[in-house]
């Protein structure tokens, strides 16, 4: 494009630079205003930050957060599990069933503390007791 | 906590913004093809930049500023796209009248032009129109790498892509521009 070269000896970059100067001249006042506004904005922002320094985030309780959460979880699980355990244990444990008072089969006179020990030690008493039982059964 | 802001910090920021604003405005104007919108975007970018500038070293300010500017431009283009879609749906509404015009069609240069300034203006218009026809990524790469003279790494950082991608985009952009405008376009830096 030789005609373009003859029309202007300037390169594309030079033309853009020239255009930049022209546009800057045209909007000189507004450009200066916005520059000052930006600088003032920065100063104001900085001043505000200095007047009200940012409160450091409170991390006082942070070390306790995890243990506390763990303890809470464990307690919650226990709270759920314990009543369940209480209600199911007597039914499922045969040892407990065997020693429960209603099922031992021990006569009342054995646990009666008013009966003298000497009587219980005497074999004649048991013979008499056996006879009594036989009579009760046959009668 | 940030260190106290001294007066020299304000001066440094002011100087930086004064240095960068002209090219940034031109960059935005080419990208959005709307001078007023470019000014608004630049103002918004400056405010955004001033909010975060304290957290960065001065060496990276240029990249940071262009990252912010690029994001604002993308937001603006998306909004315009949605507005155009809405306008197409509401054909009879008032919004349709506000639809943005596309980039101007390149005008062919009249060989009989004698005034070199006028010719240069027309050449610039043709060039900008050709630039506006490029895909967005190629356009960005050309403007940052070729025009602004940023390094491949800086361009890749701003565009959030690899250096290889930057080279590919630039190569394609140069090919496309040369195809439209001839060897007048600068050679790849």
Describe the protein's topology:
The complex is a heterodimer of chains A (139) and B (189).
Chain A: H1 2-7, H2 12-26, H3 28-51, H4 62-92, H5 94-99, H6 108-111, H7 117-121, H8 123-138
Chain B: H1 7-32, H2 35-52, H3 61-89, H4 116-133, H5 136-147, H6 152-159, H7 163-181
Helix pairs in contact in B: 1-2, 1-3, 2-3, 3-6, 4-7, 5-6, 5-7, 6-7
Explain this structure to me?
The complex is a heterodimer of chains A (139) and B (189). Chain A is mainly α. Chain A is 77% helix and 0% strand. Chain A contains eight helices and no strands. The radius of gyration of chain A is 52 Å and the shape is rod-shaped. The N terminus of chain A is likely disordered. By secondary structure, chain B is mostly helical. Chain B is built from seven helices and no strands. At the A-B interface, helix 1, helix 2 and helix 3 of A face helix 1, helix 2 and helix 4 of B.
Give the helix proportion of chain A (percent range): over 70%
State the end-to-end CA separation of chain B: 42 Å
Mean pLDDT of chain B: 83
Q: Termini distance of chain A?
A: 142 Å
The gross shape of chain A turns out to be rod-shaped
Rg of chain A from C-alpha positions? Answer: 52 Å
Mean pLDDT of chain A: 78
Percent of residues in beta strands of chain A = under 5%
Major beta sheet summary of chain B: none
Number of strands of chain A: 0
What proportion strand of chain B? under 5%
Largest sheet of chain A: none
- SSE string of chain A, helices as H and strands as E: HHHHHHHH
- List the uncertain runs of chain A: 1-8
Quaternary structure state of the chains depicted: heterodimer
The number of distinct helices of chain A, counting runs of at least 4 residues, comes to 8
List the chains of the largest interface with their residue counts.
A-B, 37 and 46 residues
């Amino acid at each position: 494009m030789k005609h373009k070269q003859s029309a202007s000896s300037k390169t594309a970059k030079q033309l853009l630079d020239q255009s930049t100067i022209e546009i800057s001249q045209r909007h000189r006042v507004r450009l200066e205003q916005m520059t000052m506004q930006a600088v003032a904005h920065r100063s104001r922002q900085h001043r505000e930050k200095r007047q009200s320094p940012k409160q450091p985030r409170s991390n006082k309780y942070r070390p306790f957060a995890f243990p506390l959460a763990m303890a809470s979880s464990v307690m919650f699980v226990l709270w759920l599990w314990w009543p369940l355990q209480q209600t199911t244990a007597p039914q499922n444990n045969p040892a407990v069933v065997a020693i429960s008072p209603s099922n031992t089969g021990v006569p009342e006179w054995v646990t009666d503390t008013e009966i003298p020990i000497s009587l219980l030690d005497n074999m004649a008493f048991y013979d008499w007791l056996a006879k009594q039982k036989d009579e009760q059964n046959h009668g | 906590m940030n260190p106290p802001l001294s007066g020299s910090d304000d001066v440094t920021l002011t100087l930086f913004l004064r240095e960068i604003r002209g090219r940034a405005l031109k960059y935005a104007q080419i990208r959005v093809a709307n001078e007023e919108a470019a000014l608004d975007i630049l103002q918004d970018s400056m405010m955004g930049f001033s909010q975060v500038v304290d957290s960065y070293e001065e060496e990276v300010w240029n990249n940071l500023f262009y990252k912010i500017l690029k994001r604002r431009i993308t937001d603006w283009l998306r909004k315009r796209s949605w507005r155009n879609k809405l306008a197409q749906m509401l054909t009879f509404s008032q919004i349709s009248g506000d639809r943005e015009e596309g980039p101007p069609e390149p005008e062919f240069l009249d060989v009989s032009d004698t005034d070199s300034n006028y010719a240069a203006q027309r050449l610039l218009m043709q060039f900008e129109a050709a630039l506006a026809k490029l895909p967005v990524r190629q356009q960005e790469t050309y403007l940052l790498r070729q025009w602004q003279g940023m390094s491949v790494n800086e361009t890749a950082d701003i565009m959030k892509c690899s250096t290889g991608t930057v080279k590919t985009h630039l190569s394609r952009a140069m090919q496309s521009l040369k195809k439209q405008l001839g060897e007048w376009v600068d050679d790849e830096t």
